[in-house]
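Just curious: can you write a single protein's sequence together with how it folds?
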Amino acid sequence: MSVWIEGEVMHGRQLGRELGFPTANMEVADADTIESGVYESYVEIDGVEYKAMSNLGSNPSVGGGPRHLETHIFDFSGDLYGRRLRVELRRKIRDERKFDSLEELQRQIERDRSCILSSENRRRCPCGGLCRFSAGGRVYRFVASIPFGGSRCRNAADESRRFGKRLCIID
């Protein structure tokens, strides 16, 4: 799934900044067909693509409001107010939900960040385990879908013995 949302960065409530995750906020009046939630995303700024995490929704944890897109851009600092951005939503991480406190919201945002940043070069098998392993100082991952038959999930090391040609070195 890959969806693009383009718009002008507007001022928000600065809550993301207070929680340690400053965001570029954009109105999304024409994005009704896109599910609300948290997404792994990418943003291009001045010809450089940045990995990001975006929340599309109405912020129910802080009183709600009009539906909009908030995007925290990893490894970027700068003023984007008034600039047009094009954000690519690549993968939904979770649904938007209401948290009981800002501390609980902040902990979840930190988990979302970890999930997105650690998702590079990994894929999840049907049971949720990570199909990745280390051996000899190198990290391996699957580069093709391999059926995980049987009642238990085999880990990547087991699969590598059977399907070694379908692995590649990534680190």
User: Anything to note?
Assistant: The first strand starts at residue 3 and ends at 8. The beta strands are 3-8, 24-27, 37-45, 48-57, 68-73, 84-94, 132-135, 138-142, 167-169.
